[in-house]
Amino acid sequence: MSVEHTQTAPRSALPVTPLDPAGTDPFAWLEDVDGDTALGWVRERNAHSAEALGGTDFAATELAVREVLDSDDKIPHVSKVGSHYYNFWQDAEHQRGLWRRATLESYRTDDPEWETVLDLDALAAQEGESWVWHGASVLRPTPEQLAAGEPRRHALVDLSPGGSDSDVTREFDLVTKQFVPESDGGFVRAQAKGGMSWVDSETVYVYTDFGAGTMTPSGYPRQVKRWRRGTPLAEAALVYEGTEQDMSISASRSHTPGFERDLVHRALRFYANETYLATGVGTADQTLTKIDVPDSANVGLHREWMLVRLRDDWVLGDTTYRAGSLLATGFDDFMAGSRDLTVLFEPTPTTSLAGITWTRNHLVLNVLDDVKNLLHVLTPPSSPSSPSAAGTAGWVRSELPVGGELLTVGVGAVDVIDSDDVWVVTTGYLTPSTLGLTTVGAPRPSAPEVLKSAPSYFEAAGLAVRQRFTESDDGTRVPYFVVGRADRVEGEAGPAPTLLWGYGGFEHAILPGYSGTVGRAWLERGGVYAVANIRGGGEYGPAWHQAALKQHRHRAYEDFAAVARDLVASGVTVPAQLGMEGRSNGGLLAGNMLTRYPELFGAIIVGVPLLDMKRYSHLLAGASWMAEYGDPDSDEWEFLQTFSPYHLFDAARDYPPVLFTTSTKDDRVHPGHARKMAALMLAADKDVTYYENIEGGHGGAANNAQAAYMAATHWTFLWNRLSS
C-alpha cells in the first residue's frame, strides 16, 4: 500500500523500524489538522475503509445501532430547575437535539407533555453552524426574588461547533425562550476553551482566551475575570491570574441561601489544585484565602460543611489520614484554624469511594467493594461545633436499599438546596437502565419508586454475566467482567469471537452498564464481551490509579495482557478470535497491546488515541496530562519511550489487523496521533483500516447518524476479522 501524499523519502527509505525520536518525523505533515494534503490523505483512507467494510452486514449493523440511538423509549434524564424538569433529547427527527422541559407530574406519566425551550437543529440551520450541545447553567433567584414570584430566566448555554472542546457561551432567556442579544446587554463568550458562571443576574465570572499570554500550555484559561452586564469584556475586572505553568483557572459562586461564597479554582496539573475563598471580589478590598488542604485533595462545600477527599496520605500532628479517605469539618471553623476532622470513609483493600452526593440534610456515599456498589446515607450533627460532631459518632449512618448482583447504581440529588430527594439509576450488562426517585434520611428507607425504565434492545435469554479475577505479572489481583452466552462465558462451548475493552487511566472506574449497541451488534451474534478493570483506573481508589502512573505505566498493560491470557486459558476464546478496543487513554492502551503484545490478539481497535508520546505534550491539551504519563522533554523520556507505540513499532514484526478511528474536530487528543501511526504502519504494508469523522470532537460523533456509522465501522471490522 502506498502513501501518495508523503512529501518525504520513498517508502523503501522510510525509517519504519523503529522511528528515531531524535530524527525527522516522516509523517509530521499529518499533524496539520485542516491542511489540504493531510485531509486528502484522510479522504483516501476513509474511502478505503468504506470500500473494505461496506456491504449488507455493515448496513444492517448501522441500522440496528441507529434504532437504539434514535429510540423514543430511552429514559429522558432530567435536571430540576424551579418547578420544571429539563431534559436534552436527541432522536431521528432531532439529530442536533432539543432542550425541553416538563412538570414533575407530567414527567411521571408514560407520555410527558414536553415544552421545547431550544431546538438545536433549527438553530444550526438558521445560523449555518453544526452546533453540538455542551450544557446549560441556570441562575437560582435570590430568596427575595423567589418570594416576589420572579421566574428563573437567566441561563448560560454552551454550544460547540462540530463537537470540539472549545465552545461558545451565550445568555438565554428561559421566559422568552430566546438568546439575549449582545446588543441588549446579553453575555456572549467567543469560541475558546473556557466558560462562564453566574455571580448574580447582572454579573458573571468569565474564564476564556483574553488574548496573547492568557492561555496555559494545555490550552485552557489562566485568567478569570468578573464581568458586569452592559460593559465591554475588555473592561472586566481581573480576579485571579495563574502562572504560565498552570493547567487552568476558573471561579464560581455558591448560591445556597445563607451560605453564598465565591471560590477561585486553580488547577496546577491533574491531581493537584488549589481552591481559594474570595471575599470583596471586584472591590479594592478583594482577598483570596487559600483553603489549606493538600494540593492533591479535592474540596467540596455544602452549607456549613467542608468535605476533603484525599488522594495521598495527609499527616496532621500525630494523625495520619489515609489516601482514599473522606473527611468532614466545619468550613468556618477550619478557615479559623481548627483542624478537627471526622473520617467519614476510609478505604480497605477491596473498597473505594466511587462518589458522594449531598442532599439538603444528608450525604450519600457510593462505595465500590470489588467493583460492586454499596450505598450509605450519613446524617451530620446539627452543627459542626456541637459536642456530638467530634468523631464518627456525630454522623448517623443508614443504608439505602438499592442495587443487585453485578449492577451499577448511580445517585444524584434532585435539588441539593431544598430537598432530600435523590434520583437513583441502576444498570447492568444485561439489565436495562431504570430511573427511580426516593427520599434519603427517612425513618424507614424504602426502595426507590421507579419512574422510568429503558426497554430491552436485545434478547438476553441464555446470556450470562460473570465477574472473574486473574493475576498480573507482579501477582496483583485484577478483576474483569465477561458477558455472553452462558456456555461460552463458562468456556464450555469452544472459543468464540471476543472483544476485550479497557481504559486504565486518570482514576476512572469502568463499571457494568447496559448497551443496546453492544447487545445488538455483538452479543446477539454470538460474540463475547469482556471488560478489564486494570490499574490506572479508579476501581480501588487512588492507590489503584497511582500504581500505573508514569514509570509504572507498564503495570496497566501487564494487567490487560493477563486478562487476555485468562480469557484464553478459561476456554472463552483463542488469540485469533480475541479482539480489544480502547479509546483516548484507552487508545494508548490499545496501541501498547498492538506493539507490545501483538501475539495475544486477532484484531485491535485504536480510538481517538495518544500514540506519539514524544510529541503528545506539544499537541493540543497534551501538556495537561504530564502528571499521568511524564514529561518527554526531560529525563522521563527514558521510561516514556517504553510505552510510546509510535516508537515501538517494528516493521519486521507481525501485527494483528488494526482499525484506527479519530475525529478532525478532536481538539483534546490530536488526530495526528492516529494519522501518523496508521501511515507508519501502512508504509510497512501492515493490515490497517482507518476512519476519521470530520465532526464529533473527542467523542468521535456529533449526532446519532455519525455515531451509528462509527459503531458499524467498529463492529463490522471486528466481526470480519474474528469470526472466520
From TrEMBL:
UniProtKB keywords: Hydrolase, Protease, Serine protease
InterPro entries with a match to the protein in the record: AB_hydrolase_fold, Pept_S9A_N, Peptidase_S9_cat, Peptidase_S9A, Prolyl_oligopep/macrocyclase
Peptidase S9 prolyl oligopeptidase catalytic domain span: 522-722
Superkingdom of this protein's organism: Bacteria
Ranges annotated as biased composition (Polar residues): 1-10
Region (Disordered): 1-20
Domain Peptidase S9A N-terminal positions: 24-381
PANTHER family documented for this protein: PROLYL ENDOPEPTIDASE
Protein name, entry field: Prolyl oligopeptidase family protein
Organism lineage string: Bacteria, Bacillati, Actinomycetota, Actinomycetes, Micrococcales
